[in-house]
Amino acid sequence: MSASLGDLRIVDFSRVLAGPFATMLLADLGATVVKVERPGAGDDTRSWGPPYDDRGEATYYQAVNRNKESVTLDLRTDDGVARARELAAGADVVVENFRPGLMDELGLGHEELRADNPGLIYCSITGFGAGAGAQLPGYDLLIQALGGLMSVTGQPDGEPQKVGVALVDVLSGQFATVGVLAALRHRDATGEGQLVEVNLLSSLLAALVNQSSAYTSGDVVPQRMGNAHPSVAPYEVLPCGDGELVLAVGNDRQFRALCERLGEPELGTDVRFATNTARVDHRQELREHLIRLLKARDARTWADLLTEARVPAGVVNDVAGAFRLAADLGLDPVVGIARGDGSEVRLPRNPIGLSRTPPSYRSAPPPLSEPPPVSD
Question: Where is this region: Disordered (predicted)?
């Protein structure tokens, strides 16, 4: 089966999450990715555990490094840099996420590598850009804090909360992937490579979407609201007779159907609740009514009854429950990838569906390679 990016060669100097996630997405679509790692240690995430799998390998590293080859090079040596330049000279794309300026100091910067390879796409991922924020440390938690995400996550009377995954890194990796693909499209038309720059802070500000535009367009500074939504109601977690129910009512029809199933249809035409704007204005009164009615049954029963009425509702799954749901829906969320010794690693499936050139799973996350012999 053909691959969308089967003729693409990528040299990946990045480590941890944002860069490796981007290069894994491209590798899933067929690109050959050579992952350059430090001799003896490799990517930092090789030691980020627990948890570990049954072979003692960190599951964090496995999450973003399938379909890659590993090459160890000591970039502090002339020989290591020379070998890195050879790899880049034969590549279509280079990805790196070192602190700004380091690759230039090593002789592996954008201008130097493109002098050898004018069609090269050079993707640089930083925390705060290459300007005034160049020396700031680009850690996901720090950027969740500085970038406003923690200010809108958590309970109003509680402390600011981070999201339960390094979401800024993941989003930045996706933006980097889009940038690389756009640059490749330009190169297809002109033969010209270019520099792709993505920084984590800008990625987060863009990904805050309606929370960002509330500030930029409405001069409103969003605040923490727990599980409630600033612009839609009811859109939150509510207690039932047993367990918690998630309601995500996005329009007035859904709200009327909710009230019918709850046995109090008159709420759907009550002037305080008949429109979304009115429901947002009277959200606390509405919440009290809903809690009273939801006490009659457990969350799972309500979820089934409301789903039948096409009201978006569900229970709060743990990760295992989420994978079971996806499997029950026929989404095949897990792929098994063979290792060289015949064992198998099981990883989340790439979510992109392509009818002619689907993602492929050709190799498990690679073990750390031995350094190549030093040339004479």
Answer: 347-376
- Two structure tokens written together for 32: 């050959």
CA 275, CA 278: separation in Å to the nearest integer? 5
Q: What are the pLDDT digits (tens) for 170-224?
A: 999 999 999 999 999 999 999 999 999 999 999 999 999 999 999 999 999 999 9
Domains of the chain, CATH where assigned: 9-208+334-348 (3.40.50.10540), 235-316 (3.30.1540.10)
Of 74, 79, 80, 68, nearest to 12 (Cα)? 68
Cβ-contact 235, 287 below 8 angstroms: no
Structure tokens at 362: 């050709």
Amino acid letter for position 349: R
CB 16 within 8 Å of CB 44: yes
Q: Which of 104, 140, 169, 341 is catalytic?
A: 169
Distance in angstroms (rounded) separating the CA atoms of residues 147 and 151: 9
Q: Measured at the alpha carbon of residue 66, what is the angle toward residues 62 and 68, in degrees to the nearest 5?
A: 125
Tell me if 223 sits within 8 A of 151, measured CB to CB: yes
Q: Does residue 214 contact residue 220 with C-beta atoms inside 8 Å? A: yes
pTM, full prediction: 0.93
* Contact assessment for residue 27 and residue 68, using Cβ atoms and an 8 Å cutoff: yes
Separation between Cα atoms, residue 143 and residue 224, nearest integer Å: 17
Nearest to 4 by CA among 24, 23, 38, 27: 27
Residue type, 178: V
Active site residue 104: no
Residues 259-281 have pLDDT tens digits of 999 999 999 999 999 999 999 99
